[in-house]
Amino acid sequence: MKREHDELAEDTADLTQVSSEGSRLKGPDAYRNKTILAPMGTLPMRLLALEYGADIVYSEEIIAKKFAKCLRTVDEKSKRVEFVLPDHKKKNVEAGCMLPGFFKDDAIHLSLDDALRAAPLAFRSDNEHNIYLEDEEDEEKANPPETTTSASQGATKRDVLQRAQHSSKTCVTYDQVSPASPLHALYNWDPLLDFLAAVLSKEQLHRTADRLGALNVHIYHQGDELGWHFDRGEFAVSLLLQSSAESGASDEGGGHFEYAPHLRSADDQNYVDVIGVLDAAEEDKSTTSTGGRIRRLNITPGALVFFCGRHSLHRVTKVTGDTPRVMAILSFETRPGVELNDYTRLKFFGRTG
Description:
10 helices
């Protein structure tokens, strides 16, 4: 048995290498007839293995031995995605990474059905907020005018805080996601932490400790949107379950993800350019404004997206069609025990516990 096991490992040792042929990988098609290294018996990895056309799934006892090859596969794939991962070793940095076709159709449908069943009991939010997702008094205490600078003159923090944003959606909180959902299983699958840490170049990741916000499903019905904002966390991981857009390049259906990469930094809040992006968006100049500062990411159902939103302003445009946009948000942190503040919980979940 051991000999057969070793021969299998040797025969397939290089199958996780990604071919350099072609200008871009095409989702699952790039992995046809490849071997996905995965533990047997875990639902998320069975789904992933099937999605990528795997013909063999390894058992847990050798996954650690072969995991380095998986990481090389991830690295090769991330170099060819539409959205390039920020890394000090790479040039032309954007604000994240997208892996199309990450979730199998069956897993998408099961997770979507679970979320829609929970929706009638979920919190419906419709409110205004500032781009920092902070109470204004708390934001001013955290970033007083005398300790922040801007790249140019003509705008202040007060100007930015006065530009109220509108957000409306239904939010299924972590305690409302069924443990039987593939989405719940994926979020609580420990090797996912190693996978994401490798992609995001982090030494270690932890699931967010927040009892409501660790895993959410956002449902945007007709007229709903997510206003411009900076994330409080360094990065966000999301998985699209259903798109409201009728086609990737069209405005039909709405619900598009738009962002302005690297608009601020820890040393410069850059109020002038923030105001410029907000003005351009109000004038509906998303594709031509400020030298193309506002970008649009065309996300397809099943795509896993990593986005670094602490310094990149972003939003979801208003849904205009009958099909809801349904997006799962998986939250992770570089340190354990991180929770949301009560302001954010009340604004988006309607409760603090």
